TrEMBL record, chain A:
Spans traversing the lipid bilayer: 12-33, 71-96, 108-129, 141-163, 184-207, 240-261
Signal peptide: none
Record lineage: Bacteria, Pseudomonadati, Pseudomonadota, Alphaproteobacteria, Rhodobacterales
Entry keyword annotation includes Disulfide bond: no
Protein name as annotated: Carbohydrate ABC transporter permease
Alphabetized UniProt keyword annotations: Cell membrane, Membrane, Transmembrane, Transmembrane helix, Transport
Species of the source: Sagittula salina
Membrane among keywords: yes
TrEMBL record, chain B:
Alphabetical list of CDD domains matching this protein: TM_PBP2
PROSITE patterns for this protein: ABC_TM1
Family to which the UniProt record says this protein belongs: Belongs to the binding-protein-dependent transport system permease family.
Main location: membrane
GO biological process: transmembrane transport
Protein known as: Sugar ABC transporter permease
Transmembrane segments: 12-37, 73-94, 106-123, 158-179, 200-224, 230-248, 260-282
Organism: Sagittula salina
Domain ABC transmembrane type-1 as annotated: residue spans: 69-278
Pfam family, one: BPD_transp_1
GO CC term (a single one): plasma membrane
Highest taxon above the source species: Bacteria
Lineage: Bacteria, Pseudomonadati, Pseudomonadota, Alphaproteobacteria, Rhodobacterales
Amino acid sequence: MARSVTTRRKAFNTAVAWAIGLLIFFPILWTILTSFKTEAQAIADPPVFLFFDWTLENYGVVMERSNYAKFLWNSIAIAGGSTLLGVLIAVPAAWSMAFVPSKRTKDILMWMLSTKMLPAVGVLYPIYLVFIKLGLLDTKFGLIVVLMLINLPIIVWMLYTYFREIPGEILEAARMDGAGLKEEIIHVLTPMALPGIASTVLLNLILAWNEAFWTLNLTAAQAAPLTAFIASYSSPEGLFFAKLSAASTMAIAPILILGWFSQKQLVRGLTFGAVK
Amino acid sequence: MATQHSRSAARLMMAPAVTLLLGWMLVPLAMTLYFSFKKYLPLRGGDLGWVGFENYVRFVTSSAFWPSIQTTLVIVGGVLVITTVLGVALALLLDQPMWGQGPVRILVIAPFFVMPTVSALVWKNMFMDPNYGLLADLWRAFGAEPVQWLSQASVPSIIMIVAWQWLPFATLILLTAIQSLDSEQLEAAEMDGAPSPKRFWYIILPHLGRAISVVILIQTIFLLGIFAEIFVTTGGAFGTKTLTYLIYQRVLESQNVGLGSAGGVYAIILANILAIFLMRIVGKNLDN
């Protein structure tokens, strides 16, 4: 029996939920709107909301000032590379934890998660030195490795919880039919786990895209991603709200669009596979 | 049935992940410990020899140490309380029947996609700027004196910015958990005449226990390391220096690696105390 709800009650819920949703979204909306204003309109009091002379000028200025395409490419390469590498390493590990569990599986998972509690700043200098020694400073590859390592525990954990939902009998049946371990993973497990893997990939793309400690401290001119692009706007310089908004919009748009298009997988991923 | 063969194969498949994480944990940890016992100033003479526990003593006795621990705990605790309480309220609201549930959910998750440097800059300038910020406009519209957010109310301002970023995460996890609640149980309670506060307290809240512990665990992991939000807004001024930020200043700004490393060891100890504490609570909840 479904709970019966009056239309009036539903209208009330709708109004309250939309009001709160818009309030939470407002800073982003305001940033996007401001990016199309002139600098004078951007600081107008009372603020102008929609009725101003829309302009693309700020985007032009930002493009001229810094090489957006390069930052964008670095972000894509670093976030994509670290996620891909992480998933490749995590799938076998999560597979064995989910299907051949031992007494220590839970401990290993918890230990992996605990490595994430290691404060990055505490080990910044050692990593910095190792990077100089290995010639990894300011390279995309170096950051791919570091971001892969900091997200690996979460990737393993998420995949583990997804894999556990797959009934073991199906895998056994495949084994009976003579499938080897490799075929079992590639042809049986992976297709079934694809939604879970997709959620994991999405969430990690976002985490890696937005990571702002290692990306700021281990890069300079060559490998700097969008987090560094936007950090170059941190010192105020006269009227700059509109330009800051344009740069901010450019930095968050790719991930915002990706997130919105893949909302279903993402919602699943955002729960880290821990809550059903 | 797991055979001996598949067991060793399983161990082999776990090896890369475990080895990498072990290396990622042990190598920097060993180096940090090593530096923490040295006087090491990269720009002023480099390695100046062993100094025993001097760095540890100096770090703790520095006047910035205890305030930084306090700031860290206040920020982490403040964000946890706000996101959990508002998250439960929002999740309950979003679970109600309404029109356009999907689009509202998109609006609510959006802040999670915004990178910390962007959200910190946007909040700092376009909202919290005492002259041109939107909040200043709002205050003036009511005839009030605009607040100097990031200097007069620096810690609450940072808590607000970070809470805005993490509220979507808490809401989503809690919403997913509420949706998995058996609605028959609620209906039965409703028919028996249990008022809604009672239904919330005795049925919904206990059901959310596991989800709340996941929210707290994951958020604490990320919140202990917040950096960009402070780096961009106050640069550690006005009492917003967390332990993370204090160490960052010692290592990179004053280029005192020995002292910073000792601080790093303290940060690792603090994180581990919290970790043991959390794992115990969460581990218990996750087994159920």
